[in-house]
From TrEMBL:
GO MF: DNA-binding transcription factor activity, RNA polymerase II-specific; RNA polymerase II cis-regulatory region sequence-specific DNA binding
Transmembrane segments: none
InterPro entries: bZIP, bZIP_Maf, NFE2-like, TF_DNA-bd_sf
Official protein name in the record: BZIP domain-containing protein
Amino acid sequence: MCSTTPAEHSGLFWEIPPQLTNPFFLVSCGQDMDLIDILWRQDIDLGAEREVFDYSHRQKENELQRQRELEEEKRQQLLREQEKALLAQLQLDEETGEFVPRPASGAEPQTSTTPPEVTQNGLFTEEDGNALSFDECMQLLAETFPLVEAIEATPPPVEPSVSPPASSVPALMAAHQPPLPVAVEKTSQDLEQAWMELLSIPELQQCLNVQMAADVLEPSFSAVSARPELQDPNYNFYMPALTDMEATTADTVCPSGYLGTFEGTLSNTIPPDNLNQMTLKALDLNTNFNADSFCDMFYPGLMNKVDGNAPPANSGITDLPLAELQNTSPLKPMDIPKFALGEGFESRKPEVNGEFPDSDSGLSLDASPNASSPEKSISGDGSFGYSDSDMEEMDSNPGSVDAESDFTDMFSPSFLGDGYQAPSSVGSQSQEAKVRHPKTEPAEGGGHDKPPFTKDKHKRRAETRLSRDEQRAKALQIPFTVDMIINLPVDDFNEMMSKQQLNEAQLALVRDIRRRGKNKVAAQNCRKRKMENIVGLEYELDSLKEERERLLKERTETGSSLREMKQQLNSLYLEVFGLLRDEDGKPYSPSEYSLQQTSDGSVFLVPRVKKTLIKSKGN
DNA sequence: TAATTATGTCATTCG
DNA sequence: ACCGAATGACATAAT
């Protein structure tokens, strides 16, 4: 019966009795005669005999008695719930966060965990007919007034574009109910885009993280965290819901005006005591449409923080809360993997595991393998789980290097473990090289970057990253900076090492760090020199090419000049020879005479005949 | 997706 | 013989 729990109706939808507006309810619920009973009892002036409504007095009396019993039971249950609501806010958060039925109310059959199908099929038993009546009412109401009622029932008019929680509910319903107006989906899409843009703002993410850190320690979230919808397209609703959820506790952090809108609408409609109850009920309602999405919508922070299944692109966000968790919570480092693995998180997808930032720096990846294969947990496993992808994920949080460092520091002791043995430097390197990459590939391959965060990912590529050796040094708690280890002169380095009592693993690591660091610098210098050599050679090549061109040009010019001079000489010769005359005043024949110049500059006319004679004699 | 580039690392040689 | 620099070769990430 939908009208048997006044307290449940004291809130949002009380003004709209579904059983009166929806004929389907009367039919499907199968308790129309009970309703008539009630109506008859409530209004004695009905003017008609009871027999008009009843099949028989006997049946009605039985039903009436049963109805009274149920009402009494409901009333008691309500009292218990109200007591609990007044007891502690924390408990209420717990319930909403856990998404499970209220623990104390044994008389309450099924509420939030009731499968949606049960409430929808209309096959009410007498017990869950009462227990689910309000859910049914909510569903019917939602079906009858999908969007309008949800918003209009809240007195202060809320603008959909700035009220993610209010409008996201119908959006989620739309995923399950095709008859919804198209405008609703469009609105949700716009909201999605708007949220993507909003979430891409680092400041806003940080703002959200601060709040998330405050709720990290909420004890009951395992049921929420275990769900696998990491790629849920409704992820965009997480953060709005998060802000909504946390607006109740941390209004001061998030400046956005919409944070309190949904809260405000509820609080304006119902008394504060019923607020959480109403939230729970509304939650039940929406489990019919998209339970996962709705859960995510209301408890995103918990998911992000606890199970480490934060949407990968959001990995940068999760770093900070995790780090803060380490600092603020009584949890010990070793508790984290136990916590993550033992409380329902084992259902995580494998690739999601790798996606968790810092995961194999001691949390999830290396925590469990540690026990099974200790030798891999030594420096051999990429030096305590630090790998290229790890570095990438660690550095993924812009400006949170400190947080990451704290994180590493927190986990290093547990990482070393009792079975830790000093690796030989050579062995550690080779083994490290073997193990590191296969382990990181799944993490890389399992990326679920969401569009809003791709910019972050690109951005963080440019971030300065802690080198692997720096991470290793942190992991082994080397008391020196990598810079000192590498750049100190030999004497100073030896002196520094002698002052500190380091175990063999630390010594080996320090030696490797120094060797690698030196070699890294040497390689850089070598490459620099090589490049300089290449540049110098290229410059020299250009110079030589220019020289060659110049010489070729000069040779051409010289040749042409030589030809010109020869031509001039020939002309001069002919001119001079033409001016010569013999005793008879006749010109000399060029075939018989020629002009020849001696070394002292004198010019003589030499008869060619002699020449030919000499030549003939010589022959 | 393939090609190219940048960088880190190891092994080896050189001074 | 030892040590550190230099460098070739390779692997991997980034472009």
